[in-house]
């Protein structure tokens, strides 16, 4: 049975809340109707399964969305690896799992 689809949430954390998050976090900016986001999701899910310590935060982005603007998100999906509130890496419109893995590899497990 396939895993349930995790939708992008309108209830995004604030930039201050992201800055205060402890440990490894993957911010995933996009929208539920975005074709690029839908195509990238299987690779994102597969790579995250190998990194259970990484908190995955799916943020619905769009005009006027403060968190996306704070991170200067221009295209979807944009994946941003954050460790203890500090951006370490990002990938825009990942073409495959390898692109996602390269971002996740920048995060320190258990930190």
Notes on the structure:
The protein is α+β, with helices and mostly antiparallel strands and 111 residues long. It has a single domain (15-104), classed as Glutaredoxin. The chain is built from 4 helices and 4 strands. It has helices at residues 15-20, 35-49, 66-70, 97-104; strands at 24-30, 55-60, 78-83, 86-92. The chain has a 4-stranded mixed β-sheet with strand order 2-1-3-4, covered by helices on one side. Strand 1 (24-30), helix 2 (35-49) and strand 2 form a beta-alpha-beta unit. Helix 2 (35-49) crosses helix 4 (97-104). The protein is globular. The mean pLDDT is 92.
Instruction: Count every beta strand, where a strand is a DSSP E run of 2 or more residues.
Output: 4
Average pLDDT figure = 92
Report the total helices.
4
Order of helices and strands: HEHEHEEH
- The CATH architecture would be 3-Layer(aba) Sandwich
Query: What do we call the CATH homologous superfamily?
Result: Glutaredoxin
Structural class: alpha+beta
Features:
single chain, 111 residues, alpha+beta, Glutaredoxin, 4 strands, globular
Fold topology:
Blueprint: H1 15-20, E1 24-30, H2 35-49, E2 55-60, H3 66-70, E3 78-83, E4 86-92, H4 97-104
Parallel strand pairs: 1-2
Antiparallel strand pairs: 1-3, 3-4
Helix pairs in contact: 2-4
């Amino acid at each position: 049975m396939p895993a349930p689809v995790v939708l992008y949430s309108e209830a995004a954390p604030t930039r201050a809340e992201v800055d205060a998050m402890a440990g490894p976090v993957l911010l995933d900016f996009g929208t539920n109707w975005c074709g690029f986001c839908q195509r990238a999701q299987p690779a994102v899910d597969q790579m995250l399964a190998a990194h259970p310590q990484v908190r995955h935060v799916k943020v619905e982005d769009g005009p006027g969305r403060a968190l996306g603007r704070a991170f200067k998100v221009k295209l979807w999906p944009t994946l941003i690896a954050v460790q203890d509130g500090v951006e370490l890496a990002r990938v825009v419109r990942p073409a495959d799992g390898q692109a996602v893995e390269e971002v996740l590899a920048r995060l320190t497990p258990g930190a």
